[in-house]
Design brief:
With about 250 residues, the chain is an alpha/beta fold. The chain has nine helices and eleven strands. It folds into two domains: about 55 residues, no CATH class; about 130 residues, Sugar-phosphate isomerase, RpiB/LacA/LacB (Ribose 5-phosphate Isomerase B, Chain: A), CATH 3.40.1400. Helix content is about 45%, strand content about 15%. The protein has a five-stranded parallel sheet, sandwiched between helices.
């Protein structure tokens, strides 16, 4: 025979179980509240607006042509890119053809006191698929300190053929004046330089120290810097890039 206290406890447990079942069925997230709409479903919690007005906010390190098409379908006229976003050549061409403005956020633009009316810096493309992240970051910082907007080149793989193909495509951007300068860091710099010499308007220079970098700029106004990743250390690479950009 159940006592009144036991019966009351059974009723309370039953009520709590029914509330939990109803909350799960309605997508409330499992809380035991009584107010309708107090909790959001998991879809509402995780969704992030990607389009603000006519500006599309891209999330991720790689911007591809598919991302451009998504922004166009959303009615965006510009895409805001996070710091160090890699823009594929096909995505850049697609954005230009559709009138989509790519707003890159480089380290130089994040400094305090930068005037919003300041003209855009010269653009530098860095292609270093086999180097370590520390070398890549160091070159990006050196270029930013020299007033360059840095973009990272992309290769379909790390094979010699893929790097040679990406180097040729990147050099064409320099020839077309899509970017102002190109820095390539790889172990096969002589083979790359031989291929790039076929492009009209391209003046590549293989440099081993800061002095040769300065001379290449002063004597031939080189617009592509080639650095041997196997023979040069981080400190030397930083000095060469600094001298080349400041010459």
């Amino acid at each position: 025979m159940q006592t009144p206290e036991l019966e009351r406890l059974v009723r309370l447990i039953t009520i709590e179980v029914l509330k939990a079942v109803q909350a799960e069925a309605s997508g409330c997230g499992g809380c035991s509240c009584d107010q309708q709409g107090c909790c959001k479903s998991s879809e509402e919690k995780t969704s992030t607006p990607l389009t603000l007005g006519d500006e599309h906010r891209h999330e991720g390190r790689l911007l591809s042509e598919a991302d451009i098409l998504k922004a166009v379908d959303a009615g965006a006229s510009s895409i805001s890119l996070p710091k160090r976003t890699i823009v594929t050549p096909l995505a850049r061409d697609s954005a230009r053809a559709r009138g989509i403005e790519l707003k890159c956020c480089s380290p130089i633009e994040q400094r305090k006191g930068t005037s919003p009316s300041r003209p855009l810096q010269k653009r530098l493309l860095l292609l270093a698929p086999k180097t370590s992240r520390s070398v890549e970051d160091a070159v990006v910082q050196v270029a930013a300190n020299a007033g360059r907007r840095v973009e990272l080149g992309l290769t379909r793989s790390k094979t010699s053929e893929a790097i040679l193909e990406a180097s040729f495509e990147s050099a064409r951007q320099v020839a077309d004046k899509t970017v102002d300068h190109l820095v390539i860091i790889d172990e096969a710099v002589y083979a790359i330089c031989h291929q790039l010499n076929r492009i009209e308007g391209i003046r590549p220079a293989i440099c081993w120290d800061a002095e040769t970098a300065r001379q290449s700029r002063q004597d031939s106004n080189s617009n592509i810097l080639l650095l041997n990743s196997r023979m040069l250390g981080l400190t030397t690479i930083k000095r060469i890039v600094t001298a080349w950009l400041e010459a």
